[in-house]
Amino acid sequence: MMSSPLFHLFRKYVSIGVLNTGLHWAVFFILVWLIELNTAWANLFAFFVAVTFSFFANAAYTFQAQATKKKYFLFTAFMALLSFALGWLSDALHLHPFMALISFSLLSLVLGFLYSRYIIFKDID
Q1: Predicted model pTM
Q2: Is the N end or the C end of the chain the one with fewer CB atoms within 10 Å?
C-alpha cells in the first residue's frame, strides 16, 4: 500500500474532486432543468462554481496553503483551457460529447493535481 506524502496529497485531491464533480453536475442540472438555461451557459456557470470550490477546498484541505487571487486566476485559467481543449479535440475527432466529459474528468484529476502541487502551491512542504 502506498503511503508516500505525494500519494496522501493525491488522495485528498481526489476526495475534493468527487465533491467538485457532484457540485458541477448538481448546478448544471438545476440550471438546465429547473431554470431552463441553455446547456452552454449552464455548463459554464457550473464550471465556475465547481472550479472555485475546488480551488479553495484544495488550498485549505489538500495543500494547506494560502489562497490568493493570482493563484485562483492561474488555476481557473488552466482548468478552463484544459476543458476547452478537450472539448475542441472531441469535436475535431467527432467523438460523442460524453467522451469529452469523461476525458476532462480523468485528465483534470491528474493534470489538475500536478499543476496545483508543482505550480500553484509549489511552496508547500
Answers
A1: 0.87
A2: N
pLDDT, tens digit (0-9, with 9 covering 90-100), for 61-105: 999 999 999 999 999 999 999 888 887 888 888 888 778 778 888
- In tens, the pLDDT along 11-41 reads 999 999 999 999 998 998 899 889 988 887 8
Number of domains in the chain: 1
Count CB neighbours of 43 within 10 A. Answer: 19
Q: Is 110 part of any domain?
A: yes
Q: Could you tell me which residues come within 8 angstroms of residue 46 by beta carbon, excluding any fewer than 6 positions away?
A: 23, 24, 25, 27, 28, 31
Distance from C-alpha of 4 to C-alpha of 104, rounded to nearest angstrom: 26
Residue 100 confidence (pLDDT): 77
- Look at residue 125 and tell me if it is in a domain: no
Q: Domain span at residue 80?
A: 5-120
Residues 6 or more apart in contact with residue 7 via CB below 8 angstroms: none
Q: 97-115 vs 5-29: helix axis angle to the nearest 10?
A: 140
DSSP character at residue 90: H
